[in-house]
Amino acid sequence: MTRLMRISTHVYILRLDESLDSHAFIDLPGDDDPGLLPPGLILDLRETRTLDEEGLGRLVELKERMHRRDGQLVLLTPSEDLLRQFRYLELVHAFRITDELHDALVTVGGKGRAAHFHHHFTAGA
Asked: Helices marked H in the chain — which ranges?
């Protein structure tokens, strides 16, 4: 089940299912108005095992949208299967990837908020 969680006005976490495809993404804040796109987005890929062409296209499009707004996109703990696909497609350096929630939160929200976000995220999990 794909789930979007708002951690703050600046940070959202999108938990994705087993497949990263065209159906994996739900509407994000800012889809209708790019000015509303959150400055920090963490894609939680811990359960994701496969990536198809449409999912990759949506992922790259999202990365570009975040970049145009000086936002931060972090991929959290991709599976080894998914990392293998990223390496094969030579995308491993195109995205910020971490296996630590705290590091992802620091990247998108700053050090001062990371502890608060981590508590909020793990308490709501």
From this structure: 53-68, 80-88, 101-109, 111-124
